[in-house]
Task: structure prediction
Amino acid sequence: MAQSRLDGSPAASTTAPAAAPAVRITEGQVREAGPGGALLYPSVTSCLTVTVRLADGGLVGAHASLFQVPGEYRSDRILGALRSRVGDRPVTAVEVRGAVGAWHPGYFTKAVESYGDGEAVPYPTRPDPDGLAAAVADGLGQPRAKVSVTDVPDGDQTVR
Result:
């Protein structure tokens, strides 16, 4: 019986393969899932997630944090890392989700930590989804029309 399961006999084909676990992307990381895969962004509280949907069905994502996690990307470096990971593959859409009201679009070009003593750090006075979409589109080299922004309550995000 064990051999029939290994050699591709009908007994082996009746067992459906287990779904691959979602690719976990924590703060400051950039990762990807192949076609049909999923991304899991855990504990999105003051963060933004940026998911690039590829034409082949794959997903490339970034978990942008307001403050740098040691050893991971700062907010002003994460879009460049995401753009490099996507490369020249065709993009169908870019989805930005998370704490929209906590983010100033400028955090994608100058991280909060990079301001020196006496420099004023810009803080959002209201949610700016259009500004965030424009900053993400610019950082990824994508048309603004491909980028959507959604304010999402705190918690885990799974993108399929």
Observations:
- Residues 75-86 form the longest helix (12 residues).
- Residues 1-13 have pLDDT under 50 and may be disordered.
- The first strand starts at residue 23 and ends at 24.
